[in-house]
Amino acid sequence: MKKKYKLFTSESVTEGHPDKVCDLIADTILDKALEQDPYSRIACEVCCTTGLVMVLGEFTTEGYIDIPAVVRQTVADIGYTSADYGFDSKTCAVVTSIKEQSEDISAGVTEALEKRRDSSDPADAVGAGDQGMMFGYATNETEELMPLPLLLAHKLTKALSDARRSGLLPYLRPDGKAQVTVAYDGNKPMYVDTVVLSTQHAPDVTHEQLEDDIIEKIVKPTVGGKYLSENTKYYINPTGRFVIGGPAGDSGVTGRKIIVDTYGGVCPHGGGAFSGKDPTKVDRSACYYARYVCKNMVAAGAADKMELQVAYAIGKARPVSLSVNTFGTSKYADADLLAVIEQTFDFRPLSIIENLDLRKPIYRFTTVGGHFGKEGMTWEKTDKANVIRAQLQALGK
User: Fold this and answer.
1) Which of 30, 68, 149, 296 is most exposed, with the fewest beta carbons within 10 Å of its own?
2) How far apart are CA 15 and CA 12, in angstroms?
3) Which residues contact residue 290 at a Cβ distance below 8 angstroms, ignoring those fewer than 6 apart?
4) Residue 297: which residues within 8 A CB-CB, separation 6 or more?
5) What phi and psi, each to the nearest 5 degrees, are found at residue 345?
6) Which residues contact 302 (CB under 8 A, 6 or more apart)?
7) Residue 75 host element (H or E)
8) pLDDT values of the chain reduced to their tens digit, one per residue, 397 residues
9) Residue 133 phi/psi, 5° resolution?
10) Cα radius of gyration (the chain)
């Protein structure tokens, strides 16, 4: 009897996808604010459609941002520089509606509930910018401690972008997405079952040429022989044509690719988006910190994979709950691992911001290709792994 494997699928999108266009504009605006004022409070929302970008939000900053200029430069950087693409950085309209952060929200961030109740601990001074629950995740199935289907999908969309920019496939245009299905034997990835890849292209390229080029020049070199086989199924531009793309083909909104941004659906999501938000928004910073915690725990050998939930009340510094799940992959009880986490990590917003150095203009780099699994980001360090190993040894298992 042929063995049956569990299938799991994740997707990624290129920087020219209309939702990612909006995310990238929002994070570029955030970086411009933080370059001038590291304590900027920014909540930037962007939407786009044919010939139009709208920038909305609440900004409290000492910096000056030429929003139309930032929008046009970002759109040009993505590659929408001609009316032939249906969206042009030089001619698109830019509409803005910006006001300062609500005084009610600002009060809770500036003076946390703990401080108002006479706490003298400096880390108790800054409250969470909103209520909500955030999740972190790590798995040892890849070197990056990320889920393989999502990691491969991100690599494919990057390969698409690189092939367009380098001229390897000059008929490609900015919009595109990739979807990868991996077969698992238990927790072990075995092979890639299916690759779905859709890319915007010039009108004169044939589907046959595009399909052959994408499989031979993008998919096979990127995924490699370890996971591809003669049984891998390929669906390249399955509608047969993808000339109309980007904001001309579909409207875009910030925060609509939250699963692409995180763990590809492997882990739950609390619902809060990342892009356009300064680090006082725990939607972003606490998710980064939860990833940092899980990655260090898995790197230390606490479990093969780990999910962490943290929840906050607006205006309160300390989280209202922490919860850990190792999916049966740890020899330690979840309660013991939670005790290690609470002893090693500080989830108060000010501590997160300082420990991960989040007041810098680093966010544009996070926007495309996922916020996790990238080298150089502070939340990807495993600098606590040795401390955690010593604590695990003390548990005596």
Assistant:
1) 68
2) 10
3) 134, 135, 136, 137, 308, 309, 310
4) 138, 303, 306, 337, 340, 341, 388
5) -125, 145
6) 326, 330, 332, 337, 340, 388, 392
7) helix 67-78
8) 567 899 999 999 999 999 999 999 999 999 999 999 999 999 999 999 999 999 999 999 999 999 999 999 999 999 999 888 889 999 999 999 999 877 766 666 777 776 777 777 777 878 888 889 999 999 999 999 999 999 999 999 999 999 999 999 999 999 999 999 999 999 999 999 999 999 999 999 999 999 999 999 999 999 988 899 889 999 999 999 999 999 999 999 999 999 999 999 999 999 999 999 999 999 999 999 999 999 999 999 999 999 999 999 998 899 999 999 999 999 999 999 999 999 999 999 999 999 999 999 999 999 999 999 999 999 999 999 999 999 998 887 5
9) -120, 140
10) 22
Report d(CA 200, CA 68) in Å as an integer.
26
Q: For residues 122 and 65, what is the distance between their CA atoms, to the nearest angstrom?
A: 31
For the chain, give the number of residues: 397
DSSP letter, residue 122? G
346's CB contacts (< 8 A; 6+ apart) are 123, 352, 355
User: How is residue 168 written in tokens?
Assistant: 């390897």
Rounded Cα–Cα distance for residues 371 and 364 (Å): 10
Backbone φ/ψ region at 70: left (φ over 0), alpha (ψ -120 to 50), beta? alpha
Residue 267 contacts residue 137 (beta carbons within 8 Å) = yes
Contacts of 161 (CB under 8 A, 6+ apart): 14, 15, 16, 174, 176, 368
DSSP class of residue 225 equals T
Residue recorded with tokens 């929200």: 105
Smallest CA-to-CA distance from 167 within 79, 248, 236 is with 79
Structure tokens at 218: 């993008």
pTM above 0.70, yes or no: yes
Tell me the C-alpha distance between 153 and 103, whole Å.
41
Decide: 296 and 145 in contact? Cβ < 8 Å: no
Rounded CA separation 27/80 (Å): 18
Quick one: tokens of 137? 């995740």
Residue 53 token pair: 């970008």
Nearest to 47 by CA among 70, 18, 27: 18
